[in-house]
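Good morning C.,

I know you're traveling, so I'll keep this short. The sequence:
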Amino acid sequence: MSAALETVLARAGLKVTATEFLSLVEDAARRLTSPQVDPAAHFTERERLALADSGLDLAPLETAEADPRARAVAEQAVLRDTALTVGQAAARIGVDASRIRHRIGERRLLGWKDRGGWRLAAWQFTEDGVLPGLDVVLAAMPADQPALVLANFMTTAQADLEMGDRPATPREWLLSGGDPHPVAELASTLGTPA
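The tokens, ready to paste straight into the viewer:
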């Protein structure tokens, strides 16, 4: 199993051993998932009835059903593993580490506190700089959205951002020199009901 996993990780460009990656997954699973196997146990009887009346199924997963939390746990592990430290981000864009922390404080870069200090999602950076138009997009993004939600938005094709004959991810759009304002407009709706 570990040889196959290390092959997959290498193909994905992740510089981590199978053991390290599985440790990240275990940590993410512990932090992101509830030990409660019965979803109904999180609610009062009144809340359960209201949710059931609205069509939600609060039954526990059947043994053969895939756990929908698995994708989020894996994505969180990859997000953490590929994130840059303050020092790495500073070296990449050619500034002092204090400037990176200052940009995080101003929401010109997104970061989160993790073991060992601040971490910054890799999608925000190019090989030698910051994603063009990032400041415009970040100014519009709701501050209450988790790093994983923002990463998924920036790396998922959006129908409103067409490049040639296909939808582009916000990251691709910005890298190609696209106007950041349409991305900012889409980003401003994150976390709002559709």
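Safe travels,
E.
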